[in-house]
Amino acid sequence: MQNFSPATPFKRGVVEPMYCLKTGWGLLKGQYWLFVGMALVAFLLGSLVPFGIVMGPMMCGIYMALFRRRRGELVEFGILFKGFDYFGESVVATLIHYVPMVMIIIPFYIVLYGGMFLIMPRQGRETDPSNLIAFFAVLAVLGLIMMVLIVIISVIFTFSYPLIVDRKLSGIDAVKLSAKAALANFWPLLGLLLLNGLIGFGGLLICYVGIFLALPITFAAISVAYEQVFGLGEVQGPILPPPPPSFT
Q1: Which pLDDT score is estimated for 5?
Q2: What does pLDDT average to in each consecutive run of 10 residues of the chain (248 residues)?
Q3: Does a structural domain hold residue 247?
Q4: What are the distances in angstroms from CA 214 to CA 59, 120, 202, 211?
Q5: In 3-state terms, what secondary structure has residue 29?
Q6: Contact yes or no for 64/82 (Cβ under 8 A)
Q7: Do 21 and 195 touch, CB atoms closer than 8 A?
Q8: What is the rounded distance in angstroms from the CA atom of residue 153 to the CA atom of residue 94?
Q9: Is residue 159, in this structure, part of any structural domain at all?
Q10: Cys-Cys crosslink for 174: which of 23, 62, 78, 163, Cβ 3.0 to 4.6 Å?
Q11: What's the total number of domains in the chain?
């Protein structure tokens, strides 16, 4: 596979959310349960180590498998652990992702617990209802701002791991290029992430474990969006699922 420059061009406004989901599902056909198992193991292992140290390589492994599937190559469970070939770069990208998230979340919790302490009833003094109303109003505004910022950050980092795997970029260069391409496709990419969120929420309703049934679809949809924006190394022609196996 070729190595690409961080200045690799990308397309603007080309992401089609419904097409990404439909085509992503097509990529999974025939090996769907394999990808369910990979997603389950990836998140179990990723959750064991703090700060996403292991989650980055796991995500790289999943995208490696999806890209191989796209090329019609053999996909085996062990490819998940090939993501550790990109351990250093994926950890850098993960930490760059986590730092702004933490910086956004911490002030919210400071206001939450600090406000609760200040309005807490004390001996001989009742809480003023107007203080309660003001506290929850401020909390609601801050919560909305936090959610908006987290969504924007999530959009910006959408292509980071695929770029590390497919373009062999460093973690920093992958994040920079992902941000540029994501902002150039912001609204359709936001639509895709919202659809993925709805699918994930539907999975959560199935006794929580259903989230692992939904994750392969969301990852596959993002891999298709990535191909729409950047193309995929050594692949030409329209985005189509691999052909079915021949039995003749």
Answers
A1: 53
A2: 60 96 95 96 90 92 97 93 97 94 91 82 68 86 93 96 96 97 97 95 83 95 97 57 45
A3: no
A4: 15, 42, 8, 5
A5: coil
A6: yes
A7: yes
A8: 12
A9: yes
A10: 163
A11: 1
